[in-house]
């Protein structure tokens, strides 16, 4: 069972991971960060919905 704490931790990891694994090509960085931020948002919403 995923608790709120675990879901929020996954959201934080999803937001921080692109900074560690960013592609060197500047044109690919924007979609990379955009997708990671979207994933972090989805995980944060899931954590909020689980908690309420």
Summarize the topology.
Layout (H helix, E strand, L loop, with lengths): L3 H18 L4 H26 L1
Helix pairs in contact: 1-2
General description of the model:
It is a single chain. The chain is mainly alpha-helical. The protein has one domain (4-51). It has helices at residues 4-21, 26-51. The longest helix has 26 residues, at 26-51.
Q: By helix and strand content, what is the structural category?
A: mainly alpha
Strand percentage lies at under 5%
Helical fraction: over 70%
Morphology: elongated
**What is the rounded distance between the termini?**
16 Å
Order of helices and strands: HH
The tally of helices reads 2
Low-confidence stretches: none
Number of separate structural domains: 1
Biggest sheet record: none
Number of DSSP strand runs: 0
Rg over C-alpha atoms, rounded to the nearest angstrom: 13 Å
Mean pLDDT rating? 79
């Amino acid at each position: 069972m995923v608790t709120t704490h675990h879901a929020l931790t996954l959201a934080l990891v999803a937001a921080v991971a692109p900074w560690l694994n960013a592609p060197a090509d500047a044109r690919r960085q924007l979609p990379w960060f955009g997708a990671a931020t979207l994933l972090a948002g989805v995980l944060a919403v899931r954590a909020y919905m689980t908690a309420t």
